[in-house]
Amino acid sequence: MKQMKIGDWNLEVDVEKTKDFYQAYHQITESCDCIFCKNFVSAIELIPKPVLDFFRSLGIDPTKEGEVSEYCEIKDGMHLYGGFFHIVGELISGPDCWIETSEEVSHLATNNMIEINGFKFGFTNGVRSLPDGFPNPTLQLEFEGTIPWALKESYK
Predict the structure, then answer these.
(1) End-to-end CA distance of the chain, in Å?
(2) 52-76 pLDDT, tens per residue?
């Protein structure tokens, strides 16, 4: 495990174990064939390099494993996406990007996130939808950002 300081967070991350898991795992589009997931995978190489570098610095292949949702078209073919990816690691200190507002309701606190080239990122210990075989300990990286429509086929 390697200690990392990212924004207000202190993390311990095993980048190699994370990378090994993603290398062996299938693409998002193998478990979901919706047009929005297909677009996300197709558009990955079109997002800003610093965003890709950030994912990769944590061992994440953003075309694999994660939970991805398209929220809406913003403008000029740009679409707002959000979701999360898993990392082998622990949140040592810093704000959880999810705030509990009641016993049953929580929300993503975007003020507890950092921005990299228009994408927002935050960390949480509230791990959801962990795939079988993902190594422990597990940390979740939440993201939100806009990506272009990269497919020839329309979503409409």
Answers:
(1) 45
(2) 999 999 999 999 988 999 999 988 8
Q: What are phi and psi of 4, to 5 degrees?
A: -135, 145
Q: How far is CA 138 from the centre of its chain?
A: 14
Residue 59: other Cβ atoms inside 10 A: 22
Residue 137, preceding peptide bond in cis (omega within 30° of 0): yes
CA 12 → CA 22, 95, 98, 99, 147, distances in Å? Answer: 18, 15, 19, 22, 29
Within 8 A by CB and 6+ apart from 145, the residues are: 47, 51, 80, 81, 82, 118, 119, 120
Q: What are phi and psi of 81, to 5 degrees?
A: -120, 155
- A 10 A CB-CB count for 84 gives 24
Tell me the pTM. Answer: 0.91
Angle at 22 between CA 38 and CA 13, to 5 degrees: 125
